[in-house]
Amino acid sequence: MGPAIRYGCGMTRERLSITVEEFNALIAARDALEALRVEHDELRGELRVAKVERDLAKEQLQVMLRRLFGAKSEKRDPRQEDLFLNEAEMLAPTAATLPALEDGPETEVAAHKRKKRGRKPLDPALPRVVVRYEIPEAERFCAQDGTELVEIGVELSEQLDIIPQKIQVIRHERVKYACRKCDHGLKVAPAPLRIIPRGLFTEAALAWIVLSKFMDGLPLYRIAALLRRFGGNISRNTLAASVIRLGQSIQPVINLMRDVLLDDEVAQGDETNVQVLKEPGKAAQTKSAMWVQMNVVGPPVRLFSYAPGHDAKYGVALWAGMRKHAALMSDGGDVYDLIAKANDLVHLGCWSHCRRYFFEAEALLPKEARGPHQPATQFLHLIGRLYAAEARAKKAEMTPQRRTVIRRRYSSKVLGRIRTLLDQYLETTLPSGKLGQALGYLSAQWPKLCRYVENGLWPICNNACENSIRPFVVSRKNFLFCDTVAGAKASANLYSLVETCRANNVDIYRYLIDLFKALPHANSADDYEALLPWKLGQPPPGTDVTA
């Protein structure tokens, strides 16, 4: 040891001396400890990332399990309706505001009446076949005094009877006439015009096939099997050829329906996948697109259109000709931004799509963790307030002008609250989680989501268009694919006709029969316009569609 070093307090410390080897060993130990510390920090960081990825994977698994086995409805637990009751009362329309805006008389709410239980009576419009049961004449005497009994009434009960499809053959006999004195007087009664010349099926049979496929969702091979059950041995190829010919024949009516849609002030759009096996330049496994369009203000029109893909160029062509500055409601996809920009349209966002993200985020939470403190629940409640205002305006049958007033006075305040919540949670929430995705969608779509308050004609969501495309999506699970492009286009036309009839509350079967009979006689634009679904019962001049 070296000499002691004396301090002023009287304490001493011996001088330490180490060799170079020992010093280097200390330096190496220090570096090793530093490396271990860095490695420890890196492992902790990797562990945090792994935990986040694990939580995201578990969340995604819960989402998929819910989609497979959970309820499809987005209706929330009724016990959550009053979570923000006191807070919402400050924004909700009151009896002092809404009636004053509506300028209408006050109405009394009817007393609640419990519905009578029991079996629902059969439709009185159905035809009745009366089967009468009587006591034999020999027994119509009183057992006490032998007096003849008289009828005083009947006891009624009804049963529903179903008559299966009846298949018959219509045999057309065209009588031929000839001159007895020469060979130049031969005449044959003219054949009636048909929508499919020399076609195998009558108009009623064609209407039944169309309804079976495009309304009931039956693929053609099942329709063929059903016909065989009743004696009609018709091949699927024959049915397919007839459907394609029909879809091509109604093209003039579809064109007029498109003119009506493009002339509207407000329209809605959506698209879904469709597989076409024999599509030029594409493999059979690739997906094409079925676009759907609908209007809002004029006579209801639902248009389906086949396209080789979901690219913007196909959508731009479909919406070309829409009146300038009209509104286009969509799910907010980027392709619709390009469509709206190319055709000078006002693009509206869909609150239902926004709400769906928050609903999925809330559904992943354990029931005991749900409550007013959860961000997803807060957003869902405020979005519900927007829909409640729309429902009240609809129930009161408000004009677009009054609806605009309600939106600006009430809905705009709710939108302000939603924006405040968005700013509060957006920067502190993991973007890849369900709640983060919901906040990201809301932030990206915010300008389009808020536009609906500017005009009472503009819808708050795209639900109506999704409901129109649902029959095609359901049927697609049965027929799986279209064989050719011609078949896909024909299907689009027939879906358009069926769904437009449904939207106009038209008897689809009766309308199709009348349309198929009248189309061969139509020659002018006025003739075709008279055959539009909402003009049912106004046949072209000189045409007997009931013959």
UniProtKB/TrEMBL annotation:
InterPro entries: IS66_C, Transposase-related, Transposase_IS66_central, Transposase_TnpC_homeodom, Znf_dom_IS66
Residues annotated as domain Transposase TnpC homeodomain: 58-131
Keyword Coiled coil among UniProt keywords: yes
Coiled coil regions, renumbered to chain: 26-60
Domain Transposase IS66 central: 198-489
Keywords assigned by UniProt, alphabetized: Coiled coil
NCBIfam families in UniProt: transpos_IS66 (NF033517)
Protein name: Transposase IS66
Species whose genome carries this gene: Caballeronia calidae
